[in-house]
Amino acid sequence: MIGLPIFHREPPVLTGSEVVLRFPRRSNYAEWSALRRESRWFLEPWEPLWSPDELQRPAWNARMRRYRQEMTAGSAVGYFIFHKKNSNLLGGITIGNIRYGVSQSAQIGYWMGARHAGNGFMQDAIGALLEHAFNGMRLHRIEAACIPTNTRSMHVLEKAGFTREGLLRSYLRINGVWQDHCIYSLIADEHRQKQESMQDRRIPVSRDENREAKL
């Protein structure tokens, strides 16, 4: 089933260790356009071709309408990523192509401002979104696709627990050119097992347990 109307209000705010994910608002325009403008060189190789008015107010208003329409239809939810301490905009992440019925799956896509890249913020944002996708939205499978030369994105996905499944030939038209993409996936059970394993490693060993282990 596609387009299940699961959101009638703004989606919940999601929090990670260092980031907060919130549904975009019209008041974010100035910060969004400034960050995208200064990061254009960094983002363009991995995104659909930018339109001539990409960063102008009318294009932003159309983007906001699309965000709202997709959210209301239940087909996609876009989030902006903000720093938890200073509330600065860092980037964006979207969960889209949401399907229920026999599929219960979705795809994620994301971008990060150039000056914020490499600080672990996207890793934190993906982790927060996965928790919501699997536990809040009750999805079974999350997919992501990236160009084979985008090693930074591939590393982020693999660190988040995604498994590379193969290559999709001429999959998406990126920066004006049809590009092959590596397809990654993460299954709900795999994610839960990883989280449980991480929690087990964080559980402190009591003094008595440590003494018994030495006996």
List the secondary-structure elements in sequence, H or E: EEHHHEEEHEHEEHH
The total count of strands amounts to 8
What overall form do the CA principal axes indicate?
Answer: globular
Number of helices: 7
If strands are numbered along the chain, what order do they take across the biggest sheet?
A: 1-2-3-4-5-6-8-7
Give the helices and strands, then pairings.
Elements: E1 14-15, E2 19-22, H1 29-38, H2 40-43, H3 57-73, E3 77-83, E4 89-99, E5 105-112, H4 121-136, E6 141-146, H5 151-159, E7 163-174, E8 177-187, H6 188-202, H7 207-214
Explain this structure to me?
The chain is of the alpha+beta class and 215 residues long. Helix content is 37%, strand content 28%. The chain is built from seven helices and eight strands; from the N terminus they run ββαααβββαβαββαα. It has helices at residues 29-38, 40-43, 57-73, 121-136, 151-159, 188-202, 207-214; strands at 14-15, 19-22, 77-83, 89-99, 105-112, 141-146, 163-174, 177-187. An eight-stranded mixed beta sheet has the order 1-2-3-4-5-6-8-7, with helices on both faces. Strand 3 and strand 4 (89-99) form a beta hairpin. The longest helix has 17 residues, at 57-73. The chain is globular and about 45 Å long. Mean pLDDT is 91; it is low at 1-5 and 209-215.
